[in-house]
Records
---
Amino acid sequence: MKKNLAEISKELNLQSGWEGLPELIFVTDQAAQPFPENIIENLQQGSMVIFRDYDHENRVELALALRYICKAKNIQFVVAGDLTLALMVDADGLHLPEYMMSEASSIKRDYPELFISVSCHDKTNFEDLPANAINAVLLAPIFPTKSHPETIEAPELTIGPQKLKVICREVALPVYALGGVNDRTAEKLVGTGVAGVAAIRGF
């Protein structure tokens, strides 16, 4: 029987040796998933939500509402790119876009309890990652995705499972595969060493 995304994520996490970390991460995006609460209601306990939606007109109210649902379901809630909002809603962590990566060390020093994840891409210099301040890396795009329209026309612009495997081996941090990940493509990640998967449209 075909496995769903949660089942594949669990298998990947067990293989990776990063047990105890979230297996599956939902990244919110109002354009792609206008009803994030419906996705969250179906997530398993121990999953993670990264609240992005930078331009949402009611971002604070939406963050508070989704944080409430996550807390009730024992799902970690992480705010992207806004430490003030993360602290305001008592989030479990902060997700930093690549351009904010240099802030990880100072944020971790001031708020050691926060789970800090960062976005990375193919051109990232992984040696620059402040490993002692980062809890997880979201690496994208692994597969062609609408979030990076150029990859639809040119799949060679994606990272792909083989390069992902090399990066996971070289980076001493848990890596999550993001970009075009769904219950079909996630099967191709078996054996890469990823700690799990992150998705927007894949649910």
Note: The mean pLDDT is 95.
---
Amino acid sequence: MKAALYFDVGSPYVYLSASRLALDDVEWKPISLGGLFKLTGRSSWGLSDTREAGMAEIEARAARYGLPPVRWPEPWPGHYLGAMRACLVADEGGVLTDFARTALQMGFVEGRDLSLVGEVLEAAARVRLDPEYVFERITAPEIKQRLIAETAAAHARGVFGVPTLAVGQRLLWGDDQLG
């Protein structure tokens, strides 16, 4: 059984993991972290009083890992539904991993706000997906429903945050667990 990586491109912890780990032989599974928060009754630490400390920790990890300095999108966190739906479109086109890595790079190295559809379409263009097609598909009812279903399935499996790596029945949650 192939390992699966549950992710959302709005997560800086996913950025850290995807930037430093060989995840090419892993099935990337896009889910909505916001949707997962609704299912679990949780919220983002980026909206809490631990925000500044969390951001500093991520910046320190990036430096330890030898990654470029983190540039935080403004605002962060944002609403990444369009970006996550675009991940599903990229999956249909066979370029999910490339698209996700590009989106994460744009978000946390370039500081681009992936809650803006123009930025999502730029990520699509960078991986040779037709931006007009992606724009059309991210509003399609079946793509919206697929993201809801993928998120619900991840929750039912026991996923409560990202990144989560599923290896068989074992779930490893967090950048610090994936190394």
Note: The first helix runs from residue 12 to 20.
